[in-house]
Amino acid sequence: MAEDDQQDDKAGAYRIVKIELDERSLARATADIEHERKVAIYDLLEENFFKPNGAGEGPFELYLSNVERRLLFDVRREGGEALGQIHLSMTPFRKIIKDYFMLCESYYDAIRNAAPAQIETIDMARRGMHNEGSEILQERLKDKIELDMNTARRLFTLICSFHMR
Fold first, then answer.
1. Would the pLDDT of 133 be above 80?
2. Secondary structure class of 76 (helix, strand, coil)
3. What's the rounded Cα separation, in Å, for the pair 68 and 4?
4. Are residues 141 and 86 in contact, defined by beta-carbon separation less than 8 angstroms?
5. Helix H or strand E segment including 112
6. pLDDT tens digit sequence for 86-122
7. pTM of the predicted protein model
8. What is the Cα Rg of the chain in Å?
9. Secondary structure (3-state) at 4
10. CA–CA separation, 38 vs 69, rounded Å?
11. Cα–Cα distance between 144 and 15 in angstroms, integer?
């Protein structure tokens, strides 16, 4: 991220200030999954860098949905002015999301039964898988939206929430 962009962002020029998930797109959620979604949204709104190419300065609103196996980023300026939509195929994310969920299950099982060293090993693998998914998201959005890694991580969590059961 360029230094000028970082300085502009401190004033809120390249930030998401509102994010909504299309309820119809979301998998039915347990209380734990709903909590994960809320935490990801809260963390994202607290700190993010989001710079849609060609949109000028924000702040921005983001509406996420999963339509016909495509991820839809509906980007708006604060106040609702439409800036455009970005459609991403979910295909490149399918394997990483599946593997990530398997590691999450292993992690939660390990918390109940395993030794601390095993829990730490699984957690490191889980975080690594999450980072990999975040990097895929950054790569897929390259030339469309510039994100920092923390923003990509939180958005990846929200993308996963469309598939959490």
1. yes
2. strand
3. 38
4. yes
5. helix 91-113
6. 999 989 988 998 888 888 788 888 888 888 888 888 8
7. 0.84
8. 16
9. helix
10. 23
11. 15
